[in-house]
What we know:
The complex is a heterodimer.
Chain A: E1 7-17, E2 20-32, E3 42-48, E4 57-62, H1 64-84
Antiparallel strand pairs in A: 1-2, 2-3, 3-4
Chain B: E1 7-15, E2 21-29, E3 35-41, H1 49-60, E4 64-68, H2 81-90, H3 96-112, E5 116-125, H4 127-138, E6 144-148, E7 180-185, H5 193-205, E8 210-215, H6 232-249
Parallel strand pairs in B: 3-4, 3-5, 5-6, 6-7, 7-8
Antiparallel strand pairs in B: 1-2, 2-4
Amino acid sequence: MCSYIVEKTALIGSAKGRKGWMKIDTANVYFDHPYYSTLDHVLAIDFTNEGEGGRDRVAVELSADSARALVERILAALASGEVAHGGVATPVAVAAE
Amino acid sequence: MSYYQGLQAEVVSFRGHNGDQGEAYYGRPLRAGKFPGIVVIHHIPGWCEWTTEVVRKLAHHGYAAIAPHLYFREGGPNESPDDLGARIRAAGGVADAQVMGDVAGAMAYLRAQPNAAGKIGVIGFCSGGRHTYLAACTLKGIDAAIDCWGGNVIVDNPKDLNDRRPVAPIDLTEKMSCPLLGIFGNDDRNPTADQVNRTEAVLKKFGKNYEFHRYNGAGHAFFDWQRDAYRPEQAMDGWRKVFGFFNRHLATSAASIAAE
């Protein structure tokens, strides 16, 4: 059955949704049955701005394997990119809850 | 009269829990007559297109069916149901009491229609299957209930109970007041085959009128043709079980064209 288990994380960033670009402050991450994908289960991420009510979101549904691969590529891009840019001071995200 | 009959399906307004006004998807045969009613309970991701297809399928087979939008309080009528579902999920989900109120409101909507034959069934999928089990144990006036792969009917970890879902449905089994049909895939992980067996044992212990059908080679949501989980052979047999059950417990002789 579907579950309500959600991993929530605060973040700093922006995303492009149906209304164009918006600031985001939260990602809700869960592994469950999808809404759109044909897969039985997906790793879903909803990027929202809870500070502005959280009504709009940018959503993705990924297979488990591709989500794991994406995590690796994100870390690799951060590592190589930060070296290339001589180290970047990262602002600290404020927890959404 | 043609073998196939027309139907009409539309979004209607209904009164749910606490009298709150919300949307529901309602389908009914177009021909004149009285029809049994069926409430369709959607799964956690939301009031999805497949849910509306189930309503139309039931209407095609001679029932007046209604699928209440369980997340209508979260947003406006023009907002995408999947966005509302995402917000509900992030907020911890809907409370069982609220869902039961919405199901009762949908039943009242069906009974108030001039085409109502009188009898009412409930069918739910996934979390809607769990809600169906709860409805069968807590709501009056249900003549037949069908739980399709509802998980968490048995709650093995008490930490999974909370203010919104305070009671494991299995603990209410003694109060079940209508016949129950259960449809499950043996490869499902929620509910597992063991949990289905334990649920059946409790139903048997309390002498309830039930029938369970378990399918090999199928897991969760194997009716859903949009998913890799779809199993056509098992799903077709499952639908025959659904219509056979509703026909026996709800239908008048003219209600259904479904073959058993």
